[in-house]
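Troubleshooting log. The previous structure file for this entry was overwritten by mistake, so regenerating from the original sequence record. Sequence copied from the archived sheet and checked twice against the printout by T.R.
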Amino acid sequence: MGSGLFAIEADWSFVFLFIILWYILVRSWESSGKLDDWNASRALGFILMLRTSWGKSALEKISKPRKFWRAYGELSLWVCWFSMFAVGLVLLLAVISALLVDTKVDPPSASELVAIPGLNPMIPLGWGTVAFVVCLVIHEFGHGIQARAHGMRVRNFGLLLLGPIPLGAFAEPEHSEIIESPRRERQRMFAAGPATNIFAALLLMILMGPVAGQFVAAESGVHSSQIIKETGAEEGGLQPWDTIIEIDGDPIATTDDFSNKMDELSAGDSVHMKVIRYADGSIETIVVNLTDKYDYYLELGWDVESLEVYGIEEGDAFLGVENLAGGTAGIDRLAGWAHPDFEGNMLTYSVAVPLHTLNILVTPFQYQGVAIHPAQEEMLAAGDGWLASLVGLEGLLFLVNLIFWLIWVNILLGFTNLIPMVPFDGGHLFKDIVHGLMNGLRKIGKRTGFWSIHPLWVNHVTTKASSMSSLLLLLVLAFLMISPYF
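Regenerated output below.
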């Protein structure tokens, strides 16, 4: 526990030193008048708000079809309402899990608690910075377009900077016009930012599909990321990421080939496997003694009825590997439901899309800040498609990484901004929802004569509900961050 605490203090000392140096630099720019020359100012003491008017002309042109963008705003509002419910449900499940489930996972370091590229080891500086800049601009343009579509003026666009690291972007509509606008129009404006991020992530997932289809496996065969201890695979010398290309002279090109071959074998058989070593690319033949799959699962605690359901019988051959996959498994996982080879109906897609979204979110944490495990990336080659012929393997990998990080950051920004607490967009939407409900109750009471609610009391309850919601969610987020340390 002492070494972990020291690591946390070391991480935070670096963060504080960086912030102090940046604060001194920004203050010197402010004193010399450079911030005024750059149309910039300080926020929260050390964050640089860099304003620009470059986007205003583009905004005016893009927002011209007012009816289209108002319909888009209405769609955004419904998407955000549904997503806010999903975010609230995930937070509730996370709290229950933190209270009831002992995961025995090491707590994150301080740097892993902040979504800052380069500082968080799971978010690379290069890809993370590019993706955050692009996605923040998308987010703020969503707000700005809705503001103009409903007649609200936008004074400036800009970036929030902490050193070279973008922390956010902003559009500055006229505050008085936001306050005075009809509630529905104001909600559309707040919803457009996160909804645009969500729509962008969905479109990029679709784009990932045809790009993934341009890859082929550099070598035919199957590999495993995990070798089970005290099994034939471990005792025979099979290593994680080694590629199995032959079993007893029969070629193994796909997972189906592997399954069919194992069906021909029995527990106790001794087989010769030809493998390509991940460590050095050499080809070796190893001898593996197969064990009993039935006995293995019984030892894990499975009951006989469950084994019968899955068709596992006594004497079935068991190699001792997990997560067996082909050479294109890394890119296939990123493409998911959008891959050209994916087959399914509407029900399948309705399940696959949200599960794939969660899979993308956890990918940087599973693979330590990369989209594809380095071993699986080395197994890829460019196919004969037109895009592969045009850009080659390196170009395809560049596109995959760019698309992946844009998807990841868009999902992160979209759903994080829908947490129903101020200053997130979800907090403003929640406040307007409460105000609408209170106004509805006031009108019902007035029509029926059952009760009377003063307009000032409506505003008072709305403000109190918003403040209490924000405070409660702040405590929830703080609890989720610190709970692993207990």
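The first helix runs from residue 2 to 32. Archived copy saved in two places this time.
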